[in-house]
Design a protein that fits this description.
By secondary structure, this protein is α/β, with parallel strands linked by helices. It folds into 3 domains: about 140 residues, 3-Layer(aba) Sandwich (Rossmann fold); about 230 residues, pyruvate-formate lyase- activating enzyme, CATH 3.80.30; about 70 residues, Beta Barrel (OB fold (Dihydrolipoamide Acetyltransferase, E2P)), CATH 2.40.50. Helix content is about 30%, strand content about 25%. The chain has a 6-stranded parallel sheet with strand order 4-3-5-6-7-8, with helices on both faces. Strands 17-18-19-23-22 form a 5-stranded mixed barrel. Strand 15, helix 12 and strand 16 form a beta-alpha-beta unit. The radius of gyration is 24 Å and the shape is globular. The structure holds S-adenosyl-L-homocysteine (SAH), iron/sulfur cluster (SF4) and FE3-S4 cluster (F3S).
């Protein structure tokens, strides 16, 4: 804010902010957009809340009494209020709890759900003007998406693009339709403009995001309208793009042309995350997922019939109200049938506003815990066995970081698996030079573990291109 100090000089009193983010990738990416918006409004980000004038808390409400944790954290912020700091609560708990947040934490000045973020510049101006109790909570019925050219992406090589916001599916257990508002897609033209800008900045991997990313429907007029699979291909064919990912897909909108697109376009990653939630038709019905085990397995058969080895991962919920031992057993047999490469399994957690909260939560926590353990044990066995297929293969890995103590490079395969690998030249392990973060290295897989692959960079080739330093990172990272 400009202020007149001595001698008529006008100086800018620096505006600083600190942001803490919880939740899914969409929330992480929302924070990147919020940070970009704040920076564009003249704020500087600080890494220590003590140094910040504005503290933002971007919250998640998906499970486990999330709101209580938020109020607990806000209580911790209380001690900072005497220092004149301002507080903002964003995200799914903000939308869910709304003005109750002001009642429980009166030092909070701004509460906004994600459907209102496009109004952030205006909300920030009101905040700076000293207004109290500013809300962005009324936008859940909006058709508009949050599009901004000011996105502060945290990784210079790999970046997200949200192509669809909200959710209209209303699964019986889930808060998302209440916290993120109705489903709305961006136009293909706007997505492509953003993707091209990222390519120009040096990004080689783009990940499309949406609560149900494949429910994306191009709102463009009929002349330029694309299907989801066509959009994937269009971005995959941009010169400079090496990887395109998309998450999360919903089985109901999973069409065969997505598999055909992956088969035909090498830059589309060979990975589909397709949450099933349960293997039992009775439970799927009670969850209002609106597909059956057989419907889901048909989609699995399309993926498995592909020419490429497409990795399949899933989310599952155990202990949904009414889930019997026999229902749970159907989830276990499904896991064995599909042979997932990873499963994210959760104990059912009753959430406010959802139909499942009123269903008798008949499954005790002990039973849920036991079912979760059985499921995870079974899945670990499957991964131990199934990852064996990669032994001896050469996989291209994007370098992410270094494990200095093990002298290993940590990379990610197109299938989204972690690959820990060593680099050798003329038979000797390279101790001081490693491929830069963001580069792509062909790695021969020498060992498979249940949760990762181990390998060696292909000898000497240094794959000339792979060891070419990326523009915005140090040329070599010195180990030790
Ligand atoms: N849109 C995606 C999932 C988004 S939420 C889909 O429909 O598949 C991410 C995951 O959290 C879900 O797949 C589900 O497994 C889990 N989840 C959501 N609500 C939950 C709840 N109330 N209890 C336990 N797990 C839940
Ligand atoms: Fe939640 Fe279902 Fe929507 Fe996924 S599809 S976000 S689980 S309501
Ligand atoms: Fe959490 Fe909201 Fe994402 S509830 S998982 S931050 S959509």
């Amino acid at each position: 804010m400009p202020c007149d100090l001595f001698g008529g000089y006008t100086v800018m009193v620096s505006k600083t902010f600190y942001i803490e983010t919880f939740g899914c990738q969409m929330n992480a990416h929302d924070s990147e957009k919020v940070i970009g918006t704040l920076e564009q409004q003249g704020y500087a980000r600080v890494e220590d809340e003590g140094e910040a004038g504005l503290i933002l808390y971007n919250t998640c409400s998906i499970r486990d009494k999330a709101e209580q944790k938020v109020f607990h954290r806000l209580n911790e912020y209380k001690r900072l209020q005497g220092e004149g700091k301002k507080f903002a609560v964003l995200g799914c708990v903000a939308q869910q709890e709304g003005e109750r947040i002001f009642e429980k934490a009166p030092y909070v000045s701004l509460v906004a759900g994600s459907a209102s973020y496009r109004n952030l510049p205006e909300m920030l101006r009101r905040l700076e003007a000293g207004e109290q109790r500013i809300t962005g909570l009324d936008d859940r019925q909006t058709d508009l998406t949050f599009e901004t050219e000011f996105t502060a992406r945290s990784n210079p090589h790999r970046g997200y693009i949200t192509i669809i916001e909200g959710c209209d599916k209303f699964c019986a257990y889930c808060v998302v339709p209440y916290t993120r508002g109705k489903e709305r897609s961006r136009t293909s033209a706007s997505v492509l403009v953003e993707a091209r800008k990222m390519v120009d900045l040096g990004y080689t991997e783009i990940q499309f995001l949406g609560q149900n990313v494949n429910s994306w429907r191009d709102p463009s007029d009929s002349s330029g309208r694309m299907s989801f699979a066509e959009l994937l291909v269009a971005v995959g064919e941009l010169p400079g793009i090496r990887r395109v990912r998309f998450t999360t897909s919903h089985p109901r909108d999973f069409t065969r042309d997505i598999v055909q697109a992956i088969d035909a376009t090498p830059t589309l990653c060979d990975h589909v995350h397709l949450p099933v939630q349960s293997g039992s038709n009775g439970v799927l019905k009670a969850m209002a997922r609106e597909y059956t085990r057989e419907w889901y397995l048909e989609r699995m058969s399309w993926i498995k019939a592909a020419k490429r080895d497409i990795s399949i991962t899933s989310d599952m919920i155990v202990g949904f109200p009414g889930e019997t031992d026999a229902d749970f057993e159907e989830t276990i047999t499904l896991v064995g049938e599909v042979k997932y490469d990873a499963v994210f399994a959760f104990k059912f957690s009753p959430r406010p506003n959802t139909p499942a909260v009123t269903m008798a939560d008949s499954i005790s926590d002990e039973v849920k815990t036991e079912r979760l353990r059985i499921l995870m044990d079974r899945q670990r066995e499957i991964q131990r066995e199934h990852y064996g297929r990669h032994l001896g293969q050469v996989q291209e890995c994007m370098v992410e970081s270094y494990n200095v103590s093990r002298n290993q490079v940590v990379g990610r395969s197109s299938q989204n698996k972690t690959v820990n690998f060593t680099t050798r030249q003329n038979g000797a392990q390279i101790a001081r030079a490693q491929p830069p973060v963001g580069s792509y290295v062909p790695v021969r897989i020498t060992q498979t573990l249940p949760n990762c692959l181990v390998g060696e960079a292909m000898a000497d080739s240094a794959e000339a291109s792979a060891f070419v330093p990326m523009p915005r990172v140090p040329q070599f990272v010195v180990l030790n």
